[in-house]
Amino acid sequence: MNNKKTSVNIDFAGKTLILETGLLAPQATAAVFARLGDTAVLVTVVAGGPSVLDYFPLSVEYGERLYAGGKIKGSRWVKREGRPSDEAILAGRLIDRSIRPLFPKSFKNDVQVIVTVLSVDGENEPDIIALNAVSAALAISKIPWNGPIGAIRMGYSEAGEYIANPTASESLTSSLDIVVSQSKDKTVMIEAGALQVPEDVVLGAVIGAHVETQKILAGIEELVKKVGQEKMPVPQDASLQEAIALFEKSYKAEIEGLIKSRVAKEAGGTELEDLVNQIYEEMKMKNPNEEIDKKVLFKALEYVMFKIIRNDVVKNKKRADGRKVDELREISGGVGILPRTHGSALFNRGITQALSIATLGSPRMEQLIESAEGEETKRYIHHYSGLPYSFGQTGRMGFVSRREIGHGALAERALKAVIPSQEVFPYTIRVVSEVLSQNGSSSMASTCGSTLALMDAGVPILAPVAGISIGMMSDDKDYVLLTDIIGLEDFSGDMDFKVAGTEKGITAIQLDVKIPGLTDEQVKEILPRARTARMEILKIMQSVINQPREAISEYAPKIEMIQIPVDKIGEVIGPGGKNIKAIIAQTGAQVDIDDDGTVTFSAVAQEAVNAARDWVSGMTREVTPGEIFEGTVKRILPFGAFVEYLPGKEGMVHVSKMRRGFVKDPNEVVAIGDTVKVKVEEKDSQGRINLTMLLDEDGGGEEQPREPREPREEGTFERTSSSFRPTGGQRSFNRGPRAHDDRGGETRSAHPLARQFQRENQEKRSKTRFGGPKKRFSR
Q1: Tens digits of residue pLDDT in 555-612
Q2: pLDDT at position 477 over 80
Q3: What pLDDT does residue 261 have?
Q4: Tag placement on the chain: N or C end, fewer CB within 10 Å?
């Protein structure tokens, strides 16, 4: 590696992309430091010795560092970055799929590419910078590689204009997010997500990307001229060529039978090994002293088998399973497969089979994603599972493979465009696709099955989504496109071009190639072919279920959301969470409050949701004088009673407001737990609500009934503990208006018995007020 710092500046969609080598990682085979804005990555490439494996051992590792965004891991105990996130794995796969097709087929040395994200600015995405830096590092290294390539992300604005290398903020309003890797005249890799975008818009993005990628290629070529290393020779395996010639001459019939059995899956997945063992034994019998490598026989047998399949397609338009080049396999499906899940569906395409299960949860179940650029949440999650039995094989069980993560992400991207907003459908949604049998395009089968499962779960998706894979076989002169490829056609063909979408447009694309790339004319031909197949699949899917169910499963949580004033959040939560804990405990519903005042209620029983919602609504609503409620008596004090007129809201009914006439003790009228009708009388200066049980007839309720009184003789009096009251319901003398004498003068009391009672009562108070008569002190 050159130890002298060398760099090139590239015009990258109006910004400057800097590629620099010679300063960092001097022991790597090649290292490139790349920077766009304040986003920077380091790419290292190291070539090892020849591998004993029978395939090209290329590994791409994409490592995010939280320090790149000035972050420290949120975990209390572990601060070191651990296993790569799904997003990092997907970025690594993006790079792998872009560079792998350009390595010579006979090159089998270990090659390791490591990307380390060192700095992020939140606007320039590091994955595209890394992809171009990897291309530059391989181009200047001694590793044989038929590059370079240039990569760019393209967007599509609301105004109908393409955006080259959109910033993070521009991507938010873009209906298209497509990453394209290109050589000078071909497209090597496509990864796209879109909001039901027409095919011609996608094609325009692919063609338009060439303008920017040509600038990147020119910059990388300039760097190669300055510091490029001499490439390693590519070894040729003479024994492999001899085995190929032997198989083509002596075992063509057996190989054609192998093709038929693999198409029909009659031998349970071991037919290839069985034929190799048979040929190995025959060769050992003819030449006992000759050393024969079974790995070479495997490679030669696959080469001849794939060559037969390709020739039949390109020259005769004959597919291995007998279908026409544009014919789909038999498709079937069903919904409601599992009894207790929220939604389930089975989708079959040939012997490819996907069982998809949809689960609904409250918004608090959202996935939290932590990266150098910050934290974000995801409310639609799609997981893909393809266990060894789905290939008819045995295998190791353990961590989810990169392939499974990639297939799940593709299906998630395909369906994300039709998932309703949280305002329309306030659920977190997780779909798991259990792929039970794989024979080509299982990720697209997962997409179709998951659409059916979401509709079975009652998710009001904007439109059904279907997916299909288009393959290609070619020779030096011609090529043939194949609709709905099977596994053999995938392995022996040139590409796997997956397209998912609705009747309206495309929602996702993923292109993998095994050749140096596709021309723009080929891409132009592939997209309408995929649309024709997609429309046919959608018709079949709609015959299974034509619209989302009107109601969600009885086993799914019921969710409602309301908005409360932000200044009421503390009141709902209460001191130490007292109020919200009481709501949860008494209603059985889960209550979640966001900082913007959004309150979410979830429970399996709708009654629990209603109770919690009404409780919080009552706590946060503003009442006005004159409103009438039915409340519950919660506390009784000597001067009145406190009535809960709304959940969690109490007001006081003064003793004078309980019924007509004098009330000595509130317990005479109400008891704790009684349901009473009350009217809001006023809200005092301290925000307390005063209630009355004396309702006007025009106020929505009848007057509280008075206790029946026995008739008394007119002019008589009754003695009480604190007053002398005349009959007839008049006010007591010590509270009522003063009487007048015959001369018109005002007197203290008009009745001698009343005056006598007043004197006695006054003497009694003077004796008891300070504990009895005063005592003289004596020594």
Answers
A1: 999 999 899 999 889 888 988 888 899 999 999 999 999 888 999 999 999 999 999 9
A2: yes
A3: 80
A4: C
pLDDT tens column, 344-376: 999 999 999 999 999 999 888 888 887 877 788
Q: What value does the CA radius of gyration of the chain take, rounded to a whole number of Å?
A: 41
Nearest to 721 by CA among 679, 676, 662: 662
Strands in 263-386 per DSSP E: 331-335, 343-349, 352-361, 367-371, 374-378, 380-385
What does the CA dihedral 126, 98, 522, 411 come to, rounded to 10 degrees? -70
The angle at the Cα of 597, spanning 592 to 599, to the nearest 5 degrees, equals 30
Rounded CA separation 593/2 (Å) = 58
113 has which bridge partners? 45, 60
Could you tell me if 49 and 110 are in contact, meaning their C-beta atoms sit under 8 angstroms apart? yes
What is the three-state SS of 22-34?
CCCCCCCCEEEEE
Q: Where are the alpha helices (DSSP H) in 112-237?
A: 126-140, 168-171, 199-227
pTM for the full model? 0.81
Question: Nearest Cα to 135, choosing from 100, 84, 102, 99?
Answer: 99
| Average pLDDT, integer, range 454-459 | 97
Q: Considering only the C-alpha atoms of the chain, give the largest distance between any 2 of them, rounded to a whole number of Å.
A: 153
Q: Exposure string (b/e) for 339-370, b if CB count within 10 Å is 16 or more?
A: eebbbbbbbbbbbbbbbbbbbbbbbebbeeeb
Helices and strands in the chain, H and E counts? 16, 31
Q: Quote the CA–CA distance of 694 and 660 in Å, as a whole number.
A: 8
CA separation for the pair 163, 251 (Å, rounded)? 55
| Integer Cα distance of 85 and 370 in angstroms | 9
Distance CA 779, CA 240 (A): 131
